[in-house]
Prior knowledge:
Layout: H1 6-14, E1 18-19, E2 29-32, H2 38-51, E3 53-57, E4 60-67, E5 70-73, E6 84-89, H3 94-100
Amino acid sequence: MEKFNDILRNFIATEKWTYAKTLPEWPHEYIVRERVYEKLFVETALHIRQNGYEGKFYSKTIIYFDQDGYTYWTMGAPIEETIIINRTQTENSYEQRLKNGTLPKPQK
């Protein structure tokens, strides 16, 4: 797995990530393509997909990428349609929470 290069590391470190308050049981944050530098957004999304690994979110398969204590992902749409990059602290990722027995109870 190839790590983010210095340019992408600087991009993700300096962007303002928005906390996803609609899913408090799944703490994560995101950046929106139209609010950031498009070229670096696309490069970051491509990097996640080319250097990440397949993982689950319940029954959905997602490509995840881990670096510096964070897990990154997109929702799997084609790159030209991808509008959000998500991240969470790796300890809050689905796979870590499944392994630790700390998944939230399903919503009814």
